[in-house]
Design brief:
Structural class: alpha/beta
Number of helices: 19
Shape: globular
Largest sheet: 12 strands, mixed
Helix content: 25-40%
Number of strands: 25
Strand content: 15-25%
Radius of gyration: 23 Å
């Protein structure tokens, strides 16, 4: 059975029942049909103690797949199986990958959140609201220039782009404002995908409506002719944007296939933003459950680094344990084995690829000071010798490896992992950030590259050096760093698999996300608007006469 067939074969419980089991007063829910609801922010009870926060991350992604979201959901179900009050907190999928190459992001097999079709498509409209707010600001910015430009904005220094939640390479670079004076000022422009909008990052880091508005007002959208930053507050767009976001900011409640409460909210990309679900959703999960299980995007060098150095720093969160997800197949790819040969035992390729896992594990344990377990998603083609090899190498780092079969068995396949996570959560930990924000921008970047990526240092291009100087002059020098780099390597070169050494990371552009509260550092060939593949996943998606969606994965 495919993922969507499995999801559609399970009878979902009414969301009112899920809410009641999570201790949420059902009269306070805002229902979106039978199986979805929004939780009002008034239920975020600060007087209640926090549950344990567990982060699920992974090795560097490969085409073989790792199963991070699936493991996150299966772990939450496994914890419920052993009697632990657990809530899972996940990101919302972007339509771009759903219709592109990656597919949906609601888990897989028997470890999914449902209704998976809704979650992977329009859901409760959060992303549409974020896109509308983004484009309202763009329209008001251009209108300000059209109506006399009282702020003295230099049209060549507009940094704010329009957005659409779709992979559409045709919109990366456009010229707009054509057709004469009445139709605006002609200028070069472009679109980002919605998940790359700073509003998405602001949305996911805000702790309240008032905090949301303060962050929106600080967003830099352009610069004046004398290089002074112009903000959304200067454009007087904040109130209207907040009005568009007032419902979206409320977390969404759904369920796993086994009825575990799931809060799915927000979804910035982890290679161009901080890649975590909303702070509000995570804190809500920690108040509602004794264990809150969440994930961060891509590998631990991207999602986990930003979860820990940005999200935890800003929100005052302290994780109790980390799960690093890996597969034998993916590790063999890191060892240079072709995807077509992954089903054959190859201890040589596995040993060459294992340093990738070991570096991620070492970072969690030794850089961030967190208890850690490796969740090894087992495939039928994995041999006992290959599994023993992974376990032995991790044991040398003082970390246990637990086999996970949640894709095939749901929560039952996550019980052993759940028991290890509970054990780790009882340990004392010495959680620390990988860098201090008082360092200079170049020092912070170099610290991440050396301590987390394992590189030798950085090379800052002249244009980026000038941008850093401007940011420092405008008071942004003490912000955390949000690295934008390829997800396929510790380095900025996607072809360098495994755990590369003796490399430098080239810094091409540096810009501020003042509302989100971090400095974005662009390396390599990072794009904020992806394109569709030769054969998009959209070609296989359809709807039957009775309204049933098929082909979604």
């Amino acid at each position: 059975m495919t993922d969507i067939e499995i999801a559609q074969s399970v009878e979902m419980r009414p969301i009112l029942e899920i809410a009641a089991n999570a201790g949420i007063p059902t009269e306070d829910l805002e229902l979106y049909g039978k199986y979805k609801a929004k939780i009002p922010l008034t239920l975020l009870d600060e007087s209640k103690p926090d549950g344990k926060l567990v982060l699920v991350t992974a090795i560097t992604p490969t085409a073989a797949g790792e199963g991070k979201t699936t493991t996150t959901i299966g772990l939450a179900d496994g914890l419920r199986k052993i009697g632990k009050n657990t809530v899972v907190a996940l990101r919302e999928p972007s339509l771009g990958p759903v219709f592109g190459v990656k597919g949906g992001a609601a888990g897989g097999g028997w470890a999914q959140v449902v209704p998976m079709e809704d979650i992977n498509l329009h859901f409760t409209g959060d992303f549409h609201a974020i896109g509308a707010a983004n484009n309202l600001l763009a329209a008001m910015l251009d209108n300000h220039i059209q109506q006399g430009n009282a702020l003295g904005i230099d049209p060549r220094k507009i940094t704010w782009k329009r957005c659409v939640d779709m992979n559409d390479r045709q919109l990366r670079f456009v010229v707009d404002g054509l057709g004469g004076k009445v139709n605006g000022m002609p200028r070069e422009d472009g679109f980002d995908i919605t998940v790359a909008s700073e509003i998405m990052a602001v949305f996911c880091l805000a702790t309240s409506i008032s905090d949301l508005k303060e962050r929106l007002s600080r967003m830099v959208v352009a610069y004046t002719y004398d290089d002074k930053p112009v903000t959304a507050g200067d454009i007087k767009a904040v109130g209207a944007m907040a009005a568009l976001l007032k419902d979206a900011i409320k977390p969404n409640l759904v369920q796993t296939l086994e009825g575990t409460p799931a809060i799915v909210h927000g979804g910035p990309f982890a290679n161009i933003a901080h890649g975590c679900n909303s702070v509000i959703a995570t804190r809500m999960a920690m108040k509602l459950g004794d264990y809150a299980i969440t994930e961060a995007g891509f590998g631990a060098d991207l999602g986990a680094e930003k979860f820990l150095d940005i999200k935890c720093r800003m929100a005052g969160l302290k994780p109790s344990a980390v799960v690093v997800v890996a597969t034998v197949r993916a590790l063999k790819m890191h060892g240079g084995l072709d995807k077509k040969s992954l089903g054959t035992e190859d201890l040589g390729a596995l040993e060459k690829g294992l340093p990738n896992l070991l570096r991620h594990v070492s970072n969690m344990k030794n850089v961030y000071g967190l208890p850690c377990v490796v969740a090894l998603n087992r495939f039928p083609t994995d041999t006992d010798a290959e599994i023993a090899c992974v376990m032995e190498k991790c044991r040398e780092l003082g970390v246990n490896t637990v086999l996970s079969t949640v894709w095939a068995e749901g929560g039952n396949g996550g019980v052993a992992l759940a028991e290890e996570v509970v054990r780790l959560c009882e340990e004392e930990n010495n959680f620390a950030f990988s860098y201090d924000t008082s360092l200079s921008i170049p020092e912070k970047i170099e610290t991440i590259v050396k301590r987390v990526y394992g590189g030798d240092g950085i090379s800052i291009l002249p244009a980026a050096k000038k941008q850093i100087d401007t940011l420092v002059a405008n008071g942004f020098g003490n912000l955390p760093i949000c690295m934008a780099k390829t997800q396929y390597s510790f380095s900025d070169d996607p072809t360098k698999l495994g755990a590369p050494e003796n490399f430098t990371v080239t810094i091409k552009n540096v810009r501020v996300s003042a509302g989100a509260g971090f400095v974005v550092v662009l390396t390599g060939d990072i794009m904020t608007m992806p394109g569709l593949p030769r054969v998009p996943a959209a070609e296989a998606i359809d709807v039957t006469e009775d309204g049933k969606i098929v082909g979604l994965f």
